[in-house]
Write a structure and sequence with these properties.
With 780 residues, the protein is an alpha/beta fold. The chain contains 26 helices and 24 strands. The protein has a seven-stranded mixed beta sheet with strand order 20-19-18-24-21-22-23, with helices on both faces. Strands 8-7-6-9-10-11 form a six-stranded mixed beta sheet, sandwiched between helices. Strand 6, helix 7 and strand 7 form a beta-alpha-beta unit. Helix 21 runs antiparallel to helix 22. The chain starts with a helix and ends in a 14-residue tail after the last strand.
């Protein structure tokens, strides 16, 4: 199998960035994970693959698929616009979490990934037939033994290599400029047309999201097709086939000018709400108007047009580099020969798809408030500057929808850039390039104050009636005017300014939590280091671009129907109940079911159908999964059915992150939390935290300071300090310990009597159940 992976790595294009490879090795549990961005060159990836050691155990295919979906494809190295492919290699039917195998494969496919199955020593007609993408004949491979793996390489690898990027979201108007000078020749010109057709096939033309105009040029601009010339993909492909080859000199300056002034016009089909893109394809440098080539490209960029330049056989050339947008690694493509153009298509399409998502819809005035204190350092500061520069290219600055200002601070504010100083992405790049790092203390309060009062209050370029936004980027807690930081943010909020915070490497988040708007899941973004900033671009982009909240996480459940059951004791009050269940390895499937039954007993005793009580569910092990929000289901029958289908998955015990999710994701108005409801949490887990254990009690304390009342249930605990620290006071009414999972049944009445307070509303979170490690064997 390792030899098979080595062959695969040697087949795909790792070094250019066209392909990335991750690995998951599983048996009873996951033994190896290689993330998609761990090894971005072929040599290091081959070394990592050949270093994987064999370990044995059971066949837990479901967990392997889950980790591939949630932790590899969902991690920072996964590129949103690049096709995802999963290859499952197994020689046996699963003997762990059997019922989860097919559902996990369905989740992978529903997420848009292509899933291949290689069954070794297996035959068609088994349960695993449902795992791969349909049709099975193209995506399922059954072979006699591992020695036969090389016999399927060509068929499998060729199928993967044909996976192409397609832009199916966003919107863009694209003009392709094709060099038809004498040096090209007719055969090579036809190759450029085929490449142009491949681009067209990768764009959603029929829905109207994308429009494509085409011009060929030599001495003059020869063929001219406007953006509105072809309304369907079929019409566009037919138009491309009809373009004739004519020869002459090489005059890209006039081609760019024609695209800018004629095709990108209302008469040419240009749309004001669509980003403009030029793709120039050439085999040589200009021999007509060469001094105008770069200035014409500059004019195009100043009007908000992104310019891609692709050359065949030219290589490094200052003229072509000068025409392309910056940075060159994202806008400049080069191949040695015409038959190699296909090699760069996916990389080009990735950039086009990203560009098509540029914000143009709702105007915003955005001020980035940048921490340049001593802890940031020169490297960290430059990473922030580069990230803002890249972000600026993804919002419509040149078209006037967006304006960007800057405040740089340490001991004091050291630089201000007003909202009218950067009228294009190019000008913003120049301003950022001239912004140098200076160090000092961390005076976040003054950074926010200046952004609010000087730039978004009365500053030059501030537009009345346009939403103001502050994006604070900091790696530390204020050590100057710290008592003013949150009040300054509150003052900005009172003036209608939205507050976003990017916290870098922070463990104490109290200050930035107070600065950021709610919900924190949208307005506060946490990363480990400045090098991780590119990974959060989409998250901030979505919030800034829409100015609103993401769609709430709702499970796929039947629409609720009116119910009738009301328990008399609780019929006068209301409660929002969130069960957060520990599904770590020590719990096991059987005991996890006992927790679900305990939850169902609580649900049966609560008046769900009347609307007095709500229920949400959160499951955690190494990670946290919000399974059900408070306002997702409002009748008892559907809720009980949903609980029965909650799957068990194992891992470590990360109680701290569960408590954090309780505050950040569950008990917020956007996800069903009611402002006049007292928030209650019932914590159940089978042992003390073994991930982020130092954060567990502080997270509970933070929740209690926000008014959450926490009940803890321990099962067979020898050491109760953590559960006591999690629980509210007094402990004799909030912290419980029973001998085993079966004893949960004996205490449900006691728990329900405490959460059922007739004339009050409650938001209730049940989180965890504790079990002594010494008793694990009886639960396996």
């Amino acid at each position: 199998m390792l030899d098979f992976m080595v062959d695969f790595v040697n087949t795909v294009d790792i070094d250019s960035g066209n392909h990335r490879v991750g690995v998951v090795v599983y048996n009873t549990e996951i033994s190896t994970k290689i993330f998609l961005d761990d090894h971005l060159d072929k040599a290091s990836l081959l070394q990592a693959v050949t270093s994987i050691r064999y370990t044995y155990g059971n066949t837990n295919t479901a967990e392997g698929l889950r980790v591939a979906r949630e932790e590899i494809l969902g991690a920072a190295g996964d590129r949103r616009t690049v096709p995802n492919v999963v290859i499952l290699i197994t020689d046996g039917i699963p003997n762990m979490n059997v019922r989860r195998t097919i559902p996990e494969s369905e989740l992978i496919k529903e997420g848009g990934s292509r899933l291949y199955l290689i069954g070794v020593g297996l035959s068609p007609g088994i349960t695993l037939d449902a795992v791969p993408t349909e049709p099975l004949s193209d995506n399922g491979f059954y072979i006699d033994d591992f020695d036969a793996l090389p016999t399927i390489e060509n068929r499998l690898f060729s199928g993967i290599c044909k996976e192409t990027i397609k832009c199916v979201t966003g919107k863009a108007d694209i003009v392709i400029l094709i060099d038809s000078s004498t040096s090209v020749g007719k055969p090579n010109f036809n190759s450029m047309l085929e490449f142009t057709k491949d681009i067209a096939k990768s764009l959603d033309i029929d829905s109207g999201r994308f429009r494509v105009g085409i011009a060929t040029y030599n001495t003059y601009v020869v063929h001219k097709s406007m953006l509105n010339a072809a309304q369907t993909s079929t019409d566009l492909l037919r138009l491309i086939d009809s373009i004739p080859y004519t020869y002459g000199n090489t005059n890209p300056a006039d081609a760019i000018k024609f695209a800018r002034s004629t095709i990108f016009s209302p008469q040419g089909g240009d749309r004001p709400d669509a980003p403009n893109i030029i793709i120039l394809i050439t085999d040589g440098l200009a021999n007509m108007n060469p001094r105008r080539s770069i200035p014409e490209a500059d004019l195009a960029r100043d009007e908000g047009i992104r310019v891609f330049v692709m050359d065949i056989g030219v290589g490094k050339a200052s003229e072509l580099d000068g025409m392309a947008s910056k940075p060159l690694e994202h806008n400049r493509f080069s191949v040695d020969a015409f038959d190699e153009m296909e090699k760069v298509k996916n990389a080009l399409m990735t950039e086009i798809c990203e560009e098509s998502r540029i914000c143009t819809a709702v105007p915003r005035d955005i001020v980035f408030v940048i921490d340049s204190s001593s802890s940031v350092g020169t490297t960290g500061f430059q990473q922030v500057i580069s990230w803002i520069s890249e972000f600026g290219r993804n919002i419509d600055i040149g078209g006037g929808h967006y304006r960007v200002g800057l405040v740089v601070y340490n001991t004091q504010v050291v630089k201000k850039v007003y909202l009218n100083e950067a009228t294009s992405a190019t000008e913003l790049d120049e301003i950022l390039a001239a912004t140098s790092y200076t160090y000092g203390n961390t005076n976040t309060a003054d950074g926010i104050r200046v952004a609010h009062q000087d730039l978004l209050g009365r500053g030059a370029g501030r537009r009345p009636g346009v939403q103001g936004m502050i994006v604070l980027i900091t790696d530390g807690i204020s050590n100057m005017n710290s008592q003013r930081s949150i009040p300054e943010a509150d003052s900005a909020r009172a003036a209608g300014i939205q507050m976003y915070v990017i916290g870098v490497g922070l463990t104490d988040r109290k200050e930035i939590d107070g600065i950021a708007d709610k919900p924190l899941s949208v307005h506060r973004i946490l990363i480990d280091g400045y090098e991780a900033m590119p990974a959060i671009s989409n998250q901030l982009f979505d919030g800034v671009c829409t100015g609103g909240l993401p769609s709430p996480l709702l499970p796929s459940v039947p629409q609720p129907q009116p119910g009738t059951a009301v328990i008399k004791e609780c019929s006068e009050g209301r409660g929002d109940i969130l069960f957060i269940l520990d599904s770590s390895t020590s719990v096991g499937d059987e005991n996890f079911r006992k927790m679900l039954n305990f939850m169902k007993d609580i649900v049966r005793a609560a008046p769900i159908d009347s609307g007095h009580y709500r229920v949400a569910v959160l499951v955690f092990n190494s990670n946290v999964k919000v399974t059900l929000l408070l306002d997702a289901i409002d009748n008892q029958e559907d809720l009980l059915t949903y609980i029965d289908n909650i799957p068990y998955s194992y891992g470590n015990t990360n109680t701290a992150s569960a408590l954090q999710a309780m505050r950040d994701t569950i008990f917020i108005p956007a996800n069903g939390d009611r402002p006049d409801a007292k928030n209650l949490a019932i914590v159940l887990t089978d042992g003390e935290s073994n991930i982020n254990s130092g954060r567990t009690i502080p997270e509970a304390d933070a929740a209690k300071r926000e008014g959450v009342e926490i009940y803890g249930i321990g099962i067979g605990l020898m050491e109760t300090s953590e559960i006591d620290g999690i629980s509210s006071k007094p402990l004799d009414t909030h912290s419980f310990n029973v001998d085993n999972f079966d004893n949960l049944n004996d205490m449900k009445a006691d728990i329900f009597s405490k959460i059922c307070i007739g004339k009050y509303m409650h938001d209730l979170l049940i989180i965890a159940v504790f079990v002594p490690r010494s008793n694990l064997s009886q639960y396996r």
